[in-house]
Structure formats: structure tokens, C-alpha cells
């Protein structure tokens, strides 16, 4: 798979949807009260239950930061709250990045129709999708959307430790801005309906984690030979021993 506009799932049972349709009852009412063996709904009806699963989702709320910090950190904020200087700076970088993508990755030039997102907020503008350019003392983890979350979660956490401990050689602020704009332009092209958020990488687990590990100077995740590194699956098993390698390299 190459293009992706939404989250994905795998249906490997021929009768999966039929089983759901015959056995699942859908009730569209709010929960008013929870009792020992039942749930009371807002319309006054009662449902007998054996178990209750809270699948409530979550909301990305940055209200703990004021507007100036949201802009300084590169966190999502309402488009209407941006000042002209901020908008012009990123508009120029975005245009340069779009032109570069057009030239270097023409296969990402997509002209077909797709659901255009309602972009009332700015995208995430963090270095490696984690670090504010202007503040090296805070890291925002868990923002990236990748199909298999466990390997990138471990690697990103380790990268965050390395960044906060001063073990990452950062480029200049301008170079980081250019990279952020390039990632955003590429993400918009590959994931048209979601990529504007700049953290939507469902099919890029391996290059994303390899990029972070290379910046840390770690190699234990590579294959035993150049051939196996090139052809063998990059499974989670390859990350075994990564923490030990980090400690040997940087101490602690």
C-alpha cells in the first residue's frame, strides 16, 4: 500500500461483518447512570451488561499553553490566532518545500480527487515531530500516527532522552525549519486527507525509526549482514538490545 487517507484495519475472517451484523446491537443514546449489572440510558431504558468498555477516544488539547507558547513551540493552534510574521515565514518555507517535492519526488504529485480536510488549525511544526526548534528542554511524544506503534514509541522515547541529554547534534534553526516544512509538504502529498497535520506516517515505520536511530549513532537494529539488512523484515525483534547499546555509547 502506498496512499493512505485514514486509519486502517485488517479483516481476515470471511464472515466477520456478517457476525457483527447478527450479534451486535447498536444503541445511540447517552449513558445516564451505571448500576451494578446494568446501564441506564438517557431515554430511561436499561441495558443488562456483563462488562463495560470505555472506548471514549481522546482530544488533543493544548490549552495549558498560551498562544505565544503554542506558536513558539510549533504546536497546533487556531489559524486565526497567528500573527503575520509567523504566517509569512512558514508560507515561504512551505512554498519552497512544495517545489522541492515536485522536483525530487514527482510520483507524489497527486491530481486525483480526495476528501479535502477542514484545516482550521496549524500543523505540528516540531523537529522530528517531537522537539520545538526554540526550546531544547521539552519534548512532545506520541504525536505521530504510525501503523505499528510499539517500535517507534520506544525509539522516539530513546531519541527524546538523547536530545534532552545533549547527545544529538542538531543542525541550525533554519535547517530545522526547512526540514519541518519538507516533511509537511511530503506528508500532505502522500497522505492527502490527513498529512496536513505533519505527523501522519502510517506506512513509514522503518524509515522513521531508522532516521532517529541513525541520528543517535546506534546500529544494533541493523541486519547481521548487508544482504539481510536489505531484504529481511525489520521486525520489532531487531530492537532487542538497543537500550544496552545506548548506555554503552553514552554511559548511564
Structure write-up:
The mean pLDDT is about 85. The protein has one domain. The longest helix has 21 residues. About 25% of the residues are buried. The chain starts with 15 loop residues before the first helix and ends with a helix. Helix 4 packs parallel to helix 6. A three-stranded antiparallel β-sheet has the order 1-2-3, with no helix packed on it. It is globular and about 60 Å long. With about 250 residues, it is mostly helical. It is built from eight helices and three strands, in the order αβββααααααα. A hairpin with a 3-residue loop joins strand 1 and strand 2.
Specify the number of helices. Answer: 8
Order of helices and strands: HEEEHHHHHHH
Largest sheet: 3 strands, antiparallel
SSE class? mainly alpha
Strands, total number: 3
Regions with little confidence, pLDDT below 50 for 5+ residues: none
Rg over CA atoms: 22 Å
Strand content: under 5%
Shape: globular
Report the helical percentage: 25-40%
Roughly what is the average pLDDT, rounded to an integer?
A: 86
Number of domains: 1
Terminal residue distance = 41 Å
For the largest sheet, list the strands in their spatial order: 1-2-3
Supply database-style keywords.
single chain; 252 residues; mainly alpha; three-stranded antiparallel β-sheet; 8 helices
Helices and strands in order:
Elements (H helix, E strand, L loop, with lengths): L15 H8 L7 E4 L3 E4 L4 E3 L18 H7 L10 H21 L45 H15 L8 H18 L14 H12 L9 H6 L10 H9 L2
Antiparallel strand pairs: 1-2, 2-3
Helix pairs in contact: 3-5, 4-6
Amino acid at each position: 500500500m502506498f496512499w493512505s487517507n485514514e486509519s486502517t484495519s485488517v479483516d481476515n475472517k470471511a464472515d466477520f461483518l456478517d457476525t457483527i451484523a447478527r450479534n451486535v446491537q447498536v444503541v445511540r443514546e447517552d449513558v445516564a447512570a451505571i448500576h451494578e449489572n446494568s446501564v441506564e440510558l438517557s431515554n430511561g431504558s436499561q441495558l443488562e451488561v456483563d462488562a463495560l468498555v470505555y472506548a471514549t477516544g481522546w482530544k488533543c488539547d493544548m490549552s495549558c499553553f498560551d498562544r505565544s507558547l503554542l506558536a513558539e513551540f510549533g504546536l497546533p493552534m487556531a489559524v486565526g490566532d497567528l500573527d503575520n510574521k509567523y504566517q509569512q515565514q512558514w508560507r515561504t518555507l512551505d512554498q519552497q518545500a512544495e517545489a522541492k517535492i515536485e522536483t525530487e519526488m514527482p510520483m507524489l504529485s497527486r491530481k486525483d480527487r480526495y476528501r479535502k480536510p477542514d484545516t482550521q488549525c496549524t500543523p505540528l511544526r516540531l523537529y522530528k515531530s517531537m522537539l520545538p526548534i526554540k526550546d531544547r528542554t521539552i519534548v512532545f511524544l506520541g504525536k505521530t500516527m504510525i501503523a505499528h506503534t510499539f517500535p517507534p514509541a520506544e525509539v522516539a522515547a530513546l531519541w527524546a532522552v538523547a536530545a534532552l541529554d545533549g547527545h544529538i547534534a542538531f543542525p541550525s534553526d533554519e535547517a530545522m525549519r526547512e526540514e519541518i516544512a519538507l516533511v509537511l509538504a511530503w506528508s500532505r502529498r502522500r497522505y492527502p486527507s490527513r498529512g496536513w497535520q505533519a505527523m501522519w506516517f502510517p506506512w513509514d515505520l522503518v524509515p522513521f525509526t531508522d532516521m532517529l536511530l541513525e541520528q543517535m549513532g546506534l546500529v544494533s537494529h541493523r541486519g547481521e549482514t548487508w544482504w539481510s539488512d536489505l531484504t529481511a523484515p525489520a521486525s520489532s525483534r531487531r530492537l532487542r538490545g538497543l537500550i544496552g547499546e545506548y548506555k554503552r555509547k553514552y554511559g548511564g
